[in-house]
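Title: Comparing notes on inverse folding

I've been comparing how different people in this forum approach sequence design from structure. To keep things fair, I'm posting one structure and asking everyone to reply with a full sequence. Here's the target:
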């Protein structure tokens, strides 16, 4: 059974992007988090992945803000 924190991070990952698996392993190729099955319908990071998944989400939001700032600065 997944913890509340694991479910929360999994939901945040699902909102950010759909899981991308190779169809054989239950791991998202984009973020490295575990998924519910090899087809990858939902992210379900293991307890040991929570910190890394949270840091990945934070890094992605920073990259998005940088990209937005660059587009605003272009004449």
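Reply #1:
Here's my take.
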């Amino acid at each position: 059974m997944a913890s509340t924190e694991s479910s929360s991070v999994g939901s945040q990952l699902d909102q950010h992007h759909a899981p991308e698996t190779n169809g054989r392993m239950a791991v998202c190729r984009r973020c490295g988090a575990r998924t519910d099955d090899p087809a990858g319908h939902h992210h379900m990071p293991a307890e040991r992945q929570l910190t890394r998944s949270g840091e990945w989400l934070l890094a992605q939001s920073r990259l998005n803000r940088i990209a937005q700032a660059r587009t605003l600065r272009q004449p």
